[in-house]
Amino acid sequence: MVRKAVIPVAGLGTRLLPLTKALPKEMLPILDKPVLQHTIEELVASGIDDIIIVTSSRKALIHQHFAPDEDLDVRLRSDGKSDLADTLHAVTSMARITYLYQHGPYGNGTPVLNAARIVGDEPFMVLWADDVFTAAVPRAQQLIAAYERTRAPVLGLMPMEPHESRRYGVPIVDDELGAGLLRISGIIEKPAPEEAPSNYAAIGGYVVTPGIVAELESQVERHRDNPDGEIYLSGAIHAHASESPVFGQVIEGTWWDTGNPLGYLRAQFAAALDHPEYGPELRKLANGGGAPGPR
Asked: Which residues contact 7 (CB under 8 A, 6 or more apart)?
């Protein structure tokens, strides 16, 4: 059973500089919610409310957003804004969040290994906070269902165009098992299009098992004499898949990579257009209706 999730947020967000020099990319808004809140709400909707956020000293705003603020609550209620106070209370109480400072070598496997020492000997979800999905069934729930079917590590996958292979890890697909579930024997990181082993991209979502954690620990041991050695989750998955079952689940839904400027704008516009109040006004503007007049 998958009961816990890890969200690494210690990255610098260099693709969005200078915006992210002081503002964590995970706190960029999609309408009235930061990206990270969308991720946590997805986990809660999927039955996971025990969450470890692996962070850095640069990301204090994240802790502040999810921390209770009694003074603000009292002020809002005294001003007759109880509905807004209730909304903020829901944000601060929807999950049990543990904060852990990242420590160790470079690479996205490091925060996973940091958190695994707290999670213990059980499977857990790993989501990147700059991925936003809109789906009838939450992406995390789809991954959990795949794990319950296989009892093995699961990667979230999306179809990709061949020229996109240089941006992603691409799985080696051995068998298609139905309902979007694939048996994989490895993952190739950012291959050239002519070398890509499949037309699927490994996107931000994993169910990690103790076997994957053991592979990450092996990477640390191999790099012990090199403090700059990089520890990557894809490398651990690739090594594990050579000896043990690993699966990919093709996610049904729409994926927005908010960690780059165009992806962030697309996510923002999509959410705004889908909003019952903002959407009609924006469509008028897009159709040449002009800017709204003064109010």
From this structure: 36, 39, 40, 51, 52, 53, 54, 126, 127, 128, 129
137's torsion region: left (phi>0), alpha (psi -120 to 50) or beta? beta
Tokens of 57: 């000293």
Closest CA to 236 of 116, 119, 99: 116
Please report the pLDDT score of residue 227 as a whole number: 54
Low-confidence ranges of the chain (pLDDT < 70): 223-229, 289-295
**Residue carrying structure tokens 């009961």:** 3
Q: Global pTM?
A: 0.91
Helix axes 109-119, 233-241, angle to 10 degrees: 70
Residue-range domain boundaries for the chain:
4-259
Upstream peptide bond of 227 is cis (omega within 30 degrees of 0): no
Which of 238, 90, 255 is CA-nearest to residue 153?
Answer: 238
The domain 4-259 belongs to what CATH superfamily?
Answer: Spore Coat Polysaccharide Biosynthesis Protein SpsA; Chain A (3.90.550.10)
Residues 6+ apart with CB under 8 A from 25: 11, 13, 16, 19, 35, 129, 130, 258, 259
CA distance 49 to 51: 6
